[in-house]
Amino acid sequence: MSISPHLDNNFNLLRLVAASSVIFSHAYDITSGLHDPLSAGIGYSAGWVAVSAFFSMSGYLIYKSALRTPSAADYMAARCLRILPGLWAMLIITTLALSSITALSLVDYLGTSETWEYIFGNAIMYMPRYELPGLFLGNPLAGVINGSLWTLRFEFTCYILVIALSVSGFFSRERWFRLFAVVAVAGYLAFIAHALLTNATQSALFDGNSAAKFHRLGFAFLLGMFFARYRDGMRVSWAMLLGVYLAAAVLWPTPLFQPALIAAIAVTCFKIAFAPMPSLDWAKTMPDVSYGVYIYAFPVQQVFAYAFPQWSPLQNSLASLPATLLPAILSWYLVEKPALRLKGKFVFTRARA
């Protein structure tokens, strides 16, 4: 997610590419109920890879944000302002817009508890709901309105953990930070080891439950934090990039392929993020629409699958990307950017001044 203009990196473009990759990956689930070809090849979809990239980039940016934010209250206000206004607007807009194609009457649609549970459950992130009454029941991915929202609660949980570590002194004491890093990595590997001992590797390594999801997304986020802390003394060389991919290839048949792949994705992100690319300098100042693309794309794709059930995954994705850009751009200029201007304008901030 965007924290500042980032004129010295390529995060803007990388996030937009990641959000677009999620669209192309979801097109297979939405049009056929099957995963994309990458999933058949390595066990993980292009959407899985893109979300991992998102979390590693977020770990980098959020760690930096925590260091430069004057208080925990300011930090949490900034994080809420970045995620919640755009999310709330999307939930209201899509719920009302989709009322035009529901099988129910408008009165029944707005009067059922399922509609309000969808809005409020997703609005607080930690009680996600994926269905609205009478919608997309004949689609291959039947009834699902927005299958992308499940990641937001894990993202926000990472935000909370970062500020907890910061106020506890782990960021200001190198020994403490290294202790945290050792414990976190050990915990990650222990989770995999426990899955092996209990014959639960399928669930643990393929997002079978919330613990498995947080396990791998938290690890991706953690790698971003590590890079943010040690970037000055660490250069992502081509040899390093080649090394992590070779490690992933060697570990492919084993449960350790997952951490190796997450590491390879993170290293790739940071190699590209800080590579000099003068021809792409325009992307550094473009509006940060990646969040809007991410949260609006799924319902747009489902509408196309409803209207054009004969379309292939490629047709669905090619139509959905430009169709999603419009609400994403409007969300940035009318909701997200104005909300970000409110940073530092709360009572608790003024009281300290």
Number of strands: 0
Distance between the termini: 28 Å
- The general outline is globular
Overall structural class, as computed from helix and strand content, comes to: mainly alpha
Give a structural overview:
The protein is an all-alpha fold. Helix content is 70%, strand content 0%. α8 packs antiparallel against α10 (210-230), α11 (238-251) runs antiparallel to α12 and α13 (290-307) runs antiparallel to α14. It is globular and about 60 Å long. The two termini are 28 Å apart.
How is this structure best summarized?
Helices cover 70% and strands 0% of the residues. The chain contains 15 helices and no strands.
Topology diagram in text:
Layout lengths: L10 H22 L4 H6 L3 H23 L3 H27 L7 H6 L1 H11 L26 H18 L6 H24 L3 H5 L4 H21 L7 H14 L5 H17 L16 H18 L5 H28 L6 H6 L1
Question: What features would you highlight for this structure?
Answer:
single chain, 353 residues, mainly alpha, 15 helices, 70% helix, disordered C terminus
